[in-house]
Amino acid sequence: MTTISEAEFARICAGIRADRDVIRKHNPIGTPDETLYWMLLSCLISYLSLSDIETPCFTGTPNAETYRQAVLFILKDRKTADFDAETYLDKLTEL
Length: 95
Hints:
Largest sheet: none
Radius of gyration: 13 Å
Distance between the termini: 34 Å
Order of helices and strands: HHHHH
Strand content: under 5%
Number of helices: 5
Helix content: 55-70%
């Protein structure tokens, strides 16, 4: 199983935050927070090489909280050391 360090997770979040205006511009559907969490989830799926079985599935229409919880779920068993991912998620979406 591929894992992720706090430093690498922080780097990914910071990169998305730095590019948030471009990300939002090219993904206008959904709220700004929803778009950023969706992008982070997509990056983590790729970074961690998750299979279809390991990738979260959604019923109904996902929203920002759905994507946020999916990110936390993926990280739960894939962190190299314990860290507070919620802090980075909060920073990702603050104005």
